[in-house]
Amino acid sequence: MNLLDDPWLPFLLKDGKVENRLVSAVADSDVINLALPRADFQGAAYQFLIGLLQTALPPKTHDDWLDLLMVPPSVDALDKAFAPFSSAFELDGDGPRFMQDLDPLEDVNNATVSGLLIDAPGANGIKNNTDFFVKRGRVEVMCDACAAIALYTMQINAPAGGAGIRVGLRGGGPLTTLVMPESSDASLWERLWLNIITQKETTQKGQQWSTPHPEEPSLFFWMADTRVSDKKGTEVLPEDTRPLHAYWSMPRRFRLLFEDADECPCDICGRKTQRVVRELRAKKQGANYDGPWLHPLTPYRRDPQKPNELPLSSKGQPGGLGYRHWSGFVLNDEESSGAIAATVLKNYIHKQKLVTQERACGEDIQALLREARLWVFGYDMDNMKPRGWYSVEMPLVAIPPGQQERLRAWVQQLIDLSRNIAWMVRTQVKNAWFSRPSDAKGDMSAIDNQFYDATEPEFFKALLALQQVLQQEAPPPHIPPDTAEHWYFALKREAMRVFEDLALSGAQESMDLERATAAHRQLQSFLGGKSKGSKVVSDFIQQGGFDPSAQAKRNAASAASTTGDT
Asked: For residue 353, what are the CA distances in angstroms to 346, 348, 363, 370, 400?
């Protein structure tokens, strides 16, 4: 199978149907999304197509990018753009194979194809009988299409796997951040093209732009002998590769073993095919990525106090992803907090400005970028063990570039208040539950997560309010009082609700009302900014310029007016 010449990817059409088509179908306006059978495959397929478009149609300037946003190529034109790269995308055969070792690896034992799945139990899990939740034997055969995307998913996410088993270019299990249009029926072309950047922006330090070529082994490693890393000095640095290699990184050595079959159903998608994969060969010491890699689709962090240390890609963490992570994903802040937004996110700001200027000049361009969303997804890995898969969407806001620093500072104030209140809610729930709360063991993060989930809609309301303020000609130096007040009371309301739901839950005979009442009183005092440790609350109230007691008086007056008690 050839990944450019055969219809292997499942696409979702406007009428709700799912059809397997050529990859050039992304240019069809009736195609609105992908329809892969697994969430990690869906995210990987997006990255595959973005990498393919970035390789075959790299825009030289932002104007070139805008031209193809306004007038996408036809399916035939896209087929012609992809055609020169066909030889690099053969999945089977005697020559180079897509993302596989050029060596047949006949000196290693065969392994099951499930080894391509990051969530499949490893050899130790099977040996020690510890595959309690994700069982062995779930996937014993894959169709060629699922094998192809499973291979790509593993190569771009490759987690730690033991001595000599290399991790991905971004480190094991990285997060990916993409810009998505708000409209649910936007074309797949729009979804993909929003994440395409210019030739200059794909070029990392030490690299020089050159037109991508299918036979270039420093772009597609599988087109030549493996870069084995069994000795020191064999690390793969950015300057050792061509621009765009980050989209096609290949840390693992695999060789898929294809066999003919008679309408054999795939254990992943259920599709019956004539060509399947049951086994593969894998070998250690593949490409060992090192150096200051910055993948265009991934956010990074670095310690501002240690400028010589390499940036680290953002990873999924227990507790999920939410608004408290929004600023680190979207707002580049390398000098202060060390947050490095993905190149596609930084580029979004420039694209939004470009579209706004063109619209002001009378160009008929959809205001797509004013209504974009952030899609964040990736595994939460504990070394080589997956703890979960996260996939969330959050709003993006369009503000003038000169107001980025102010927005960052305001958002940080909102999140700092939220984090401190979440901590106090958890502390007081424990005080209500236990006679000796400091000795209580176990993971209490579910309390924080319940609070964050409850307050997330209000955070994004506040974010949109800040967007409107920062689009004014002379925005104020501080968070507007009405926004600050609304956020404070939303946090206070949900903090008390979460506390009361949890502290007073459980069997009545095990409940200590005296402890619960004391904890309730301490939480109220903290939320009012009147307790010893509540400086963050009192500072927020002072800087926000609002009087918390004023709302209580307004509520009382409103209630009295309603009941007639004036």
From this structure: 12, 9, 14, 10, 8
- E strands, 62-204, are 110-112, 142-143, 176-181
Q: Which of 35-49, 168-182, 395-409, 455-469 has the lowest mean pLDDT?
A: 395-409
Tokens 């969530």 belong to residue: 119
Which tens digits make up the pLDDT trace of 386-397?
888 999 999 988
Q: Using an 8 Å Cβ cutoff, are 488 and 541 in contact? A: yes
Tokens found for residue 490: 């939303």
Instruction: Kindly list the distances between the CA atom of residue 108 and the CA atoms of 103, 105, 254, 280, in Å, as whole numbers in the listed order.
Output: 11, 6, 11, 10
Q: DSSP characters for 298-321? A: --EE--TT-TTSPPEE-B--TT--
Tokens of 298: 């991934």
pTM above 0.70?
yes
Question: Which stretches of 382-512 are DSSP H helices?
Answer: 404-433, 445-470, 481-503
What's residue 19's pLDDT? 97
Element (H, E) at 9: strand 9-13
Q: Residue 107 gets which letter from DSSP?
A: T
Name residue 329's amino acid.
Answer: F
∠ CA 286-287-291, rounded to 5°: 150
DSSP helix/strand/coil, 437: helix
Of residues 18, 41, 38, the one with CA closest to residue 30: 18
Q: What confidence category does residue 384 fall into, taking pLDDT thresholds of 50, 70 and 90? A: confident
Tokens of 532: 């010893």
Which helix or strand (DSSP H or E) is residue 556 part of? Answer: helix 548-563
* 50 vs 55: CA distance, rounded Å: 8
Dihedral sign of CA atoms 249, 254, 259, 263 in order: negative
CA–CA gap between residue 23 and residue 188 (Å, rounded): 11
The two three-digit tokens of residue 192, written as one number: 């993909």
- Report the alpha-carbon distance of residue 70 to residue 335 in Å, rounded: 36
Task: Say which residue, 509 or 195, is predicted with more confidence.
Answer: 195
Tell me the three state secondary structure of residue 265. strand
Instruction: Output b/e per residue, 421-457; b: 16+ Cβ within 10 A.
Output: bbbbbbbbbbbbbeeebeeeeeeeeebbebbbebbbe
Q: How far apart are CA 459 and CA 472, in angstroms?
A: 21
Quote the CA–CA distance of 4 and 20 in Å, as a whole number: 13
Cα dist from 306 to 294, 335, 516, whole Å: 17, 11, 45
How far, rounded to the nearest angstrom, does the alpha carbon of residue 167 sit from its chain's CA centroid? 18
State phi, psi for 34 to the nearest 5 degrees: -95, 165
Whether residue 2 contacts residue 91, with contact meaning beta carbons closer than 8 Å, is answered with yes
Nearest of 561, 399, 420, 432 to residue 491 by alpha carbon: 420
**What does 316-354 look like in DSSP terms, one character per residue?**
--TT---GGGHHHHHS-BTTTT-EE--HHHHHHHHHHHH
Report the percentage of the chain scoring pLDDT > 90: 70
With the C-alpha atoms ordered 305, 311, 315, 321, is the resulting torsion angle positive or negative?
positive
